[in-house]
Amino acid sequence: MPIDVEANMKIPRLTIRSANQPDKVIDNSTVRFIKRIQVPAIPKPGASLTLTTSGGQTFESTVTRADWHEEKSIFIVSCNYAKRSISADDYHALVNDPDWTMKPLI
User: What is the C-alpha to C-alpha distance for residues 104 and 30, in angstroms, rounded to an integer?
Assistant: First the structure.
């Protein structure tokens, strides 16, 4: 039976290059991307977790921890984007996907 969890993903910073504009660096160290997903079991730290966008893009993440959140009554699965860098396409897919929420860390 699948379990609902909240994926809380950290992504790397990226540089968007344009021929007619200066490079734009987007620092994602102070934000997390959050989405409710279903998993067959609570993933352990170090496990790979495949995440998707509503547009059909998939990408891998690595689980760093899974904690029970009492107020939300759900497991929060913290993970990191699996690659060292994120493509502009993947970044825009996350930012523009209504299923993913960008949450600032404060």
Answer: 6
pTM: 0.90
> How far is C-alpha 84 from the geometric centre of its chain's CA atoms?
14
Collapsed DSSP state (helix, strand, coil) of residue 62: strand
In degrees and rounded to multiples of 5, residue 22 shows phi and psi of -65, 155
85, 81, 4, 92: which is closest to 55 by C-alpha?
92
Cα 31 to Cα 37: distance, rounded to the nearest angstrom: 19
Closest CA to 99 of 33, 15, 47, 26: 33
- What is 73-92 written as a DSSP string? TEEEEEEEESSSS--HHHHH
Residues present in the chain in total: 106
pLDDT one-digit tens code per residue, 59-104: 999 999 999 999 999 999 999 999 999 988 889 999 999 999 999 9
